[in-house]
Amino acid sequence: KRWPVGSRAQSAIQSVLDARRQLPEGARITEVNVRTEQEVYTHLVGIRNDPWHPKSRESADHSLPYIVGAAALEGRITVDSFNLDRVLDPQRARFIAECVKISVDPALGGADAANLAEVELVTADGQRAKGIASPAKGHHKHPFSVDDLSEKLHESAAAVLPAAQLDRLAEHVAGLEESPNIRELARFLAGDNGL
């Protein structure tokens, strides 16, 4: 998974971030329109207790309205996106409750469903930007690239290891297929960081 939420929300995050990149910096988003598969809707909206008003980290990271709303506001999704102060922030809560709309599109599902979602963002001045519905990075139809893995590693471990060490770790892991030296990797992870 690319982002720190369940697999059913990955395509929606990818789509909202793609749409957001199409808008000018500082654009004020007033609508987040999501079309998704029935399975995604059921799991992240239908069976949830008031998904437009999560009250905890756990309810937020299982709420499609919160996840896409946070991604639209922040331009990213990280573990910090689910900190309780952000989840309960009154402005964020109002944005999610008033601006995020979710519907089911049967055309997105099917036998080989990839938890697809398409997100359209609308700004206060009427601009529209749409992210396509496609399998998210990490799905077997859209495997991670080395750069994707490195980006995720840096996001996930920045609080634990310095950037230079993360760069070396990413390079080492990226080379495992060509020259798998597990002993070097194990030594590096155990603290012998002379790679």
List strands and helices in order, with pairings:
Elements: H1 10-21, E1 29-36, H2 38-46, H3 57-60, H4 64-74, H5 84-87, H6 90-99, E2 100-104, E3 117-123, E4 128-131, H7 146-157, H8 163-174, H9 182-189
Parallel strand pairs: 1-2
Antiparallel strand pairs: 1-3, 3-4
Helix pairs in contact: 1-4, 4-6, 7-8
| Low-pLDDT residue intervals, each spanning 5 or more residues | none
Number of helices: 9
Number-wise, the strands total: 4
Strand numbers in spatial order across the main sheet: 2-1-3-4
Strand content: 5-15%
Descriptive key words:
globular; 42% helix; 195 residues; 4-stranded mixed β-sheet; 4 strands; alpha+beta; single chain; 12% strand
Could you please describe the fold and organization of this structure?
This protein is of the alpha+beta class. Helix content is 42%, strand content 12%. It has nine helices and four strands, in the order αβαααααβββααα. The protein has helices at residues 10-21, 38-46, 57-60, 64-74, 84-87, 90-99, 146-157, 163-174, 182-189, and strands spanning 29-36, 100-104, 117-123, 128-131. It has a four-stranded mixed beta sheet. A hairpin with a 4-residue loop joins strand 3 (117-123) and strand 4. Helix 4 crosses helix 6 and helix 7 (146-157) packs antiparallel against helix 8 (163-174). The longest helix has 12 residues, at 10-21.
